[in-house]
Amino acid sequence: MRVLNFRTDEPSERALAELMAGGSTASDAIRQALLDAVRLRRREQMRLESAELMNDEADRAESRKVLSEMDELRAW
Fold first, then answer.
1. Concatenated DSSP letters for 15-35?
2. What's the pTM value of the predicted model, to 2 decimals?
3. Residue 1 is assigned to a structural domain of this protein
4. Which residue range forms the structural domain that includes residue 56?
């Protein structure tokens, strides 16, 4: 693992203190914050992609067609 140094500012100092309030070390808090930030970014990207697909009439028509074909294959 590599060691990473960065300069904090007042807002990041407050955020780090809040993350460490439960007893985490600075390193643990920063590692978790990085993982949380990536997870949040990925969720936001998925949300944007979903919204784009919801507004894509061709994609929605294809989905309806597939669902209709699947209904025809049901045994009951």
1. HHHHHHTTS--HHHHHHHHHH
2. 0.70
3. no
4. 10-73
